[in-house]
Design a protein that fits this description.
8 helices, 2 strands, about 300 residues, two-stranded antiparallel ribbon, disordered N terminus
Length: about 300
């Protein structure tokens, strides 16, 4: 077999069809070690970033940076910390694997990146679950506030109206709806007023003779002239319309802000993942033990 002065031999491997496959060249121990080192470095740098961010808070002097600046700074620091950690993890995995080929080393670095991504996905999933629970509680509080607002609007026309009494008043209404308001009891008038206002809020307007009926009921209930009753009903209607319009506007604005934030977050996440993969690849190439075998095809080291 020909040889040269560099201590190398030229060899050609010919595997017959159906012969044994090449042995696996992946070292899961090296991948796990690189992932652990990457996780520790990332955690250390992120804790350091949190400490630095906390030092910028000055509630006494009221010189604390705004939420937007704090968020941007935290995102930049997070990307830098994770990039450095993945570079170190890729280097460690390629070095400990003993790979003498750049491709093998790069694949070990990408394996570290994939493991880190899966672990991060699990942690982020738990975080999102907690945020979703918090958001659902907030939505419940907002819904409760909206119900209170509607009850307040209704209460302006019917003092003392409450959800618990609505069913009882509705029963009385079924016995007296459509009758002469002067001949109805206070409970019957109050229940029908509540029902008319509820339908107005739900539909966005009165149907048919509902407005005239409501005016007559309010006039009879409070002993005021029909003109004054009509004015009160119009004021209540305008207030309800304004409240509904403001609520719809806030909901649309919140939806737009949420969609914009989700889009920016998704693009930022993709960019951070690609940057992390690149850092892991570069670290793995640096950690590969022997690159001469790759740069000179057909040559392998002579065993010592």
């Amino acid at each position: 077999m020909p040889s040269d002065m560099t201590g190398t031999v030229r060899s050609t491997a010919i595997l017959p069809e159906g012969g044994p496959a090449l042995p696996s060249r992946i070292s899961w121990g090296a991948v796990i070690a690189g992932s652990l080192i990457a996780a520790v470095i990332a955690a250390t740098l992120n804790i350091l970033g949190a400490a630095i961010g906390a030092t910028t808070v000055d509630a006494v002097a009221q010189a604390t940076p705004g939420a937007a600046r704090m968020g941007i700074g935290a995102a930049i620091w997070l990307v830098i910390a994770n990039t450095l950690a993945l570079a170190a993890g890729g280097y460690t995995a390629a070095r400990l694997s003993g790979a003498a080929d750049d491709t093998d080393g790069i694949l070990h670095g990408l394996a570290v990146w994939a493991v880190a991504f899966l672990v991060s996905a699990v942690l982020i999933g738990n975080l999102l679950a907690g945020l979703a629970s918090t958001a659902s509680n907030a939505v419940g509080r907002v819904a409760g506030g909206a119900a209170s607002a509607v009850s307040g609007v209704v209460g302006q026309a019917v003092p003392g109206a409450s959800p618990t009494a609505l069913v009882d008043r509705a029963r009385d209404t079924l016995r007296g709806t459509g009758g002469n308001p002067q001949g109805m009891t206070t409970e019957q008038r109050s229940a029908e007023i509540t029902s008319l206002l509820g339908r107005r809020i739900a539909r966005g307007g009165f149907a048919g003779e509902e407005r005239a009926r409501l005016d007559a009921l309010v006039a009879a209930e409070f002993g005021i002239p029909p003109e004054e009753a009509s004015r009160r009903v119009q004021a209540i209607e305008a207030e309800a319309q304004r409240t509904a319009t403001e609520a719809a506007t806030r909901a649309r604005q919140a939806a737009d802000a949420t969609a914009r934030a989700a889009s920016i977050g998704a693009f930022g996440t993709v960019a951070a993942l690609l940057l992390g993969a690149l850092a892991a690849v570069l670290g793995a190439r640096r950690g590969t033990r022997d690159r001469i075998a790759l740069l000179t095809p057909g040559l392998v080291r002579r065993p010592a």
